[in-house]
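G., the chain you wanted modeled:
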Amino acid sequence: MPDIDSQPPTPGEAPPHRILKKFAYLLTARWLREGLVTVFFILLARRSTTTYGEFMLAISLGAILLLVGEFGLNLPLVSLLNDKNRPPGESLGQVLLLKGVLLVGALGGALVFVHWQGYAPALRQVVLVIGAGVALEALATTFFVAFQVEGRQDLEGRIKALGAGVGLGYGLITLFLGAAPLTIAFFKLIETLVFLAAGAYWLIPRSPLRWPSLKGVWNIAQRGLVFALIEIAAIIYNKANIFFLQRYGGADSVAQYSVTNQTVDGLSGVVSGLLLQAVLFPLFVKLWDEDKNRVTSLAQNTARWLLAAALPLMFFLAVESDRLIILIYGPHYQDAVWLQKYLVATIICGFLHNLAALLMISMRRERLLLVFYLSGLAVNLLACGLLIPAMPLMGAALALILTKVTVAALTVSYGQRHLSLIPKKPLLQITGTALAGLLAYFLTHPFLPREAAEALALAPTLALAWWWWRQEE
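Predicted structure as tokens:
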């Protein structure tokens, strides 16, 4: 595990339990929510591929609305709340007002979009209800950022667990009762309303909101514009292929693609959203002005552990895709089996890119980062337009992979030039163990039981990780 203390470590010092506990709070809540989400969507997928595809389409639209509503404000909010000359309630009030205005516009745009796409009335209603539930999380994340700055990840974890229990509990009950898709679709809106109510209950008494001035709101909007464009570009290039797929392949193709993308993207989200953004990013921001060498050391150590986690995970998901997909989702998702073998390539890209991107923001290179994201968006839209009409499922997968590789190459190469993000020695070590594992697998899998060959493939990389861990003790 990377050393992520806020103080310089002494030789042989173990990773600090206090920081690990913060990550554990968020990870526990994430596991609880993801467990409920997994059960919910497995049951939904088994009930109807069409309904499952419609829900995935709605969540994809909601994710775009969420990013519009957040307007990139969560990242600069970390700095604003660390400003001792500014009352926290003032910053929170300004950000909440700005997000509220943006959400009104985003939801209005969503209404126009679903009419323009000619969705059937039932699909239109499901898309708007789920989309609104996802979009309103933009307000809830304001409270979550405040908890992270205060070091109260435990409160954030409790709220997320509570919201998941109530919202997804409702969804599971209505699903078991055989309710109509529109009735089930309210699960997300209920979850988000619990986030908002609980966040306000715990935070506002300690940091009373102040009525924001228009000048203050405008200054924050200008400050967040670059981050907003970054996040909007990211969500579009992550989700655009879904809308192309809906048009050229239909809801069933969206369902096949979403089954595996939910798994792959969810694992990337655990690392980028919890460890990197919620725990390490506030530390990068603080240390960049205090001790750049410390940032470099921390980034390099994090990068090697991300590589050590990504490669075995990619191998496991690829070789076990037939068992995992069919066992969990059922025999109707044969196309998802081979799709997962391709989409695992995005895991390592996502891990390293998110680390490099947050470092660039800490270094105040967000404008260059925006150029990288816009380049990825251009690649994505071109690939979607050229590939998906001819081969919908394969085209959707290739479009995403090409985009992720492009953006990761740009951000990681920048980090490599300025911070030596991935030192040569760990890179050679992890590459050597990965190649040794693959060689062992291809030589033994025709003769050994499947599980034994896979264990031999993973053994070199896991042994290297154990050796790294012992060195840090």
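The two ends are 10 Å apart (CA to CA).

Shout if anything looks off.
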